[in-house]
Amino acid sequence: MAAAATCGTSAGNKGCTAAAAAAAGGKNNVTSFQRKGPRASVPDSGCARLVSIAGTRPSVRNGQLLVSTGLPALDQLLGGGLAVGTVLLIEEDKYNIYSSLLFKYFLAEGVINGHTLLVASAKEDPADILQELPAPLLDDNCKKDFDEDVGNHKTPESNIKMKIAWRYQLLPKMEPGPVSSSRFGHYYDLSKRMPQELIETSKWHGFFFPEKLSPTLNIEPCSLTHGYIKLLQFIQNVIYEEGFDGSNPQVKKQKNILRIGIQNLGSPLWGDDICCTENCDNSHSLTKFLYVLRGLLRTSLSACIITMPTHLIQNKAIIARVTNLSDTVVGLESFIGSERETNPLYKDYHGLIHIRQIPRLNNLIYDVSDVKDLAFKLKRKLFTIERLHLPPDLSDTVSRSSKQIPAASSRLLGQECGVMAGGRKHLDF
Amino acid sequence: MFPELNNLLNTTPDRAEQGKLTLLCDAKTDGSFLVHHFLSFYLKANCKVCFVALIQSFSHYNIVGQKLGVSLTAARECGQLVFLEGLKSSVDVFFRAQAEPHPLQFLREADAGNLQPLYEFVREALKPADDGQAAWRCPVLLVDDLSVLLSLGMGAVAVLDFIHYCRAAVCWEQKGNIVALVHDSGDAEDEENDILLNGLSHQSHLILRAEGLATGFCRDVHGQLKILWRTPSQPAAHRDRSLTYQYKIQDKSVSFFAKGMSPAIL
Fold first, then answer.
1. What is its main location (chain B) (predicted)?
2. Which one, A25, A60, A217, B61, has the greatest CB density within 10 A?
3. In chain B, which residues have their Cβ closer than 8 Å to the Cβ of A324?
């Protein structure tokens, strides 16, 4: 800073800008803004250049390596993407419709980017899951399809400059359209399947729990359930064998990301009973699993998505512990089957999305969006996440049903203020 | 360390108190900035620090520490910092049977045992040097965080026993300090966590409680910090002193202000 000031007073503009640039550049090399490698401390990561892996980008805040979750709207809310080495926990919606979609988007993004996949499920065969991945929207025909998709929406107004409510023009729009040359984050068409050749060229490992059940259990007794132990050993094996953590001397250093997807973790199909009873025998099984999994992820080039039916877990304390043990937690709440489905307030949306936790990695602060009440809508080619807009209550007669709606909406807004749920008492309007 | 927090606590690295147990507590928000503060504070105060970091990796604390002015790698190399990285060690313990008892041995065991191997590790790390001369000022044990031990199968009583043993060894015997972080689960009805939190609250000399605002998320005020000075040995003859401040976390520091006096509002 001082060098720039003295440069300003002296003559010679060219020299002073070069010096200022050099000073700024030198400062950048010394501070930790530019991470010189992925955060996962691979032992020989003494490489002085940024490791450029397909489908990743460094975060603008702390240089952390990020991968896309497969849903650009969600990437934007999570501060650019999912950090490599962390766990994204999706709290499933009631009928597991939209959470399985997010799961598929994550895996499809891995196929497109050429990442290695590890799919673990106790319900479906991973080969079947991969067959059902949605097809990516390619750049040439996506713009046309996107326009026709939102053709029935009243979008042309967005190009008109606002004359009266001009302050609203400054508000950021929540949903970006498909960018023509985006190598980070793609859009997927749910009506089509991923082309077979893309799936075949991708490298994937499947863990289907019913196949891995062995009749003789000759493992050391530990408080994890059998399924979790097997899954952890499988993941650790893949990481070690393929060199994602750099500890295997026989495999050369891997320059790819391992995307791990675990479906319905905690459900009774995995042999865990936290969804069945309130006082279960091995209530620490799931939390220990998450802890060791996170330990595996932190030391390797991998990112993990887990969907968990938290609405079935009887013991609220376990949900709090699971949230503390995960890095990013996103909750989905769909309107299907609830009384909100017929509520005219929510007719444009399919459900709510709650960003419950975003990690602070390598930093004291984190990117948190100001908008706390978010709703999602699934169109054929686009899964959009938008700010929840409540229309004004313009009823002439104050009928009983309409009186309940503002109360419910204020309660909703009170809950969306992500920090204190008890805050609704303080909202007295 | 955050200079404003030092002013509020009325301490500086030169005259840090000894023999104290400080409890850090967070409710509905993330209180890890307090851990970073105390870590850099005690490293600057030239104390020997044993950091049991169960929730994040070493590089995370290192990078934040660099922003606060301490280098953890340098401290570790010269012996001032003994760092137990929970996440990395858990992988070693879980997948490979260890020859000698590992501090995180309980990960392999079926029943909830006790934390004796961890206590032995801490005691070994903080014992004074053999040659008698004090290279460092006083030993400090820093734990981030204790609620994770409950998630890993330990009972609340086992964790309280561990802290009790550590207090006897570190605070009383060696006149050192202990700083521990516990999450407050609030309305999540986590009984074990409540037992742990209440038990530690009664033993501690200083309680720093970071809470989210009661009215919800605010961009300019990230939360509220309640500071409570206690004297656990004496019954409540004189009143414990308590202060409440609101804070905003920035990139390299945290600014504190009185309630309602946030610069964004004034």
1. cytoplasm
2. B61
3. 147-148, 151, 183
Q: How far is residue B192's CA from residue B159's CA, in Å, rounded to a whole number?
A: 10
The reply to whether A420 touches chain B by the CB within 8 Å rule is yes
- Which amino acid, residue B218? C
**What average pLDDT does the segment A196-219 reach?**
82
Residue B260 or B40, more confident: B40
In B38-97, the residues whose Cβ lies within 8 Å of chain A are 57-60, 63-64, 66-67, 86-91, 94-95, 97
> Which positions in chain B touch A420 (Cβ < 8 Å)?
28, 212-216
In A299-387, which ranges are continuous DSSP H helix? 316-325
Mean of the per-residue pLDDT values for chain B? 89
- In angstroms, the CA A150 to CA A157 distance is 13
Q: Is omega for the bond preceding B145 within 30 degrees of 0, making it cis?
A: yes
Helix, strand and coil in chain A, % to nearest 5: 35, 15, 50
Contacts of B254 in chain A (CB under 8 A): 364
Among the listed residues B85, B89, B88, B83, the one whose alpha carbon sits nearest the alpha carbon of residue B43: B83
Q: Do B32 and A236 touch (CB under 8 A)?
A: no
All residues at 6 or more sequence positions from A46 whose CB lies less than 8 Å from its CB, including other chains:
none
pLDDT of residue A329 exceeding 60, the answer is: yes
Q: Can you read off the two tokens belonging to residue A259? A: 């995307």
CA dihedral B186, B190, B192, B198 (to 10 degrees): 20
Residues of B in contact with A62 (CB under 8 A): 63
Interface size between A and B, measured as CB pairs under 8 A: 141
The confidence score (pLDDT) of residue A216 equals 59
Contact with chain B for residue A321, Cβ under 8 A: yes
The closest alpha carbon to B110, from A282, A277, A226, A218, belongs to: A282
Residue with tokens 């190399």: B77
E strands, B29-80, are 48-53
8 Å CB contact of A420 and B190: no
Instruction: Give CA angle at A222 (A207, B146), nearest 5°.
Output: 105
Whether the predicted pLDDT of A405 surpasses 50:
no
CB of B219 within 8 Å of any CB in chain A?
Answer: yes
Amino acid symbol at A100? S
Most confident listed range (A134-143, A361-370, B90-99, B222-231): B222-231
Q: Cα separations (Å) of A380 from A41, A97, A111, A150?
A: 40, 14, 20, 10
Strand boundaries in chain B, DSSP class E: 21-27, 48-53, 81-85, 139-144, 177-184, 206-211, 223-229, 241-249, 254-257
Average pLDDT over residues B117-138: 83
Q: What are phi and psi of A103, to 5 degrees?
A: -60, -45
Report ipTM for this prediction: 0.94
Count of C-beta atoms within a 10 Å radius of residue A213: 11
The distance of A260 to chain B (nearest Cα, Å) reads 17
Q: Do A324 and B67 touch (CB under 8 A)?
A: no
Sign, CA dihedral B226-B231-B236-B241, equals: negative
List, for residues A105-114, the tens digit of each pLDDT value: 999 999 998 8
The answer to whether B124 faces chain A, any CB pair under 8 Å, is no
